[in-house]
Design goal:
- The chain has one domain (about 1-75).
- It is built from four helices and no strands.
- The protein has helices at about 1-10, 25-35, 45-60, 65-75.
- α1 packs across α4.
């Protein structure tokens, strides 16, 4: 959950503090991400959402950004 929050925050979606709770703030961030990505905006971090999130974060990180790579690895594990 913290990795989901960090990834959304890194992409500019306000998922709040990475505390591991799926709050209304996280739901709103997921919905906003889904809407912009052309997915059905349910607010649930389903397989399609995680896959698209991984793609977007992968495109954003640089080769030497170890923090984002670690977050990406954890998010990929959610698939």
């Amino acid at each position: 959950m913290k990795s989901l929050q960090r990834a959304l925050n890194a992409l500019g979606y306000d998922a709040g503090t990475a505390n591991g709770y799926y709050s209304s703030t996280v739901t709103a961030a997921v919905k906003a991400f889904q809407s912009k990505a052309g997915l059905t905006a349910t607010g649930e971090a389903n397989e399609d959402t995680i896959g698209e999130l991984v793609t977007k974060v992968s495109a954003k990180i640089s080769d030497n950004d170890t923090v984002m790579k670690a977050a990406l690895t954890k998010v990929e594990g959610m698939q």
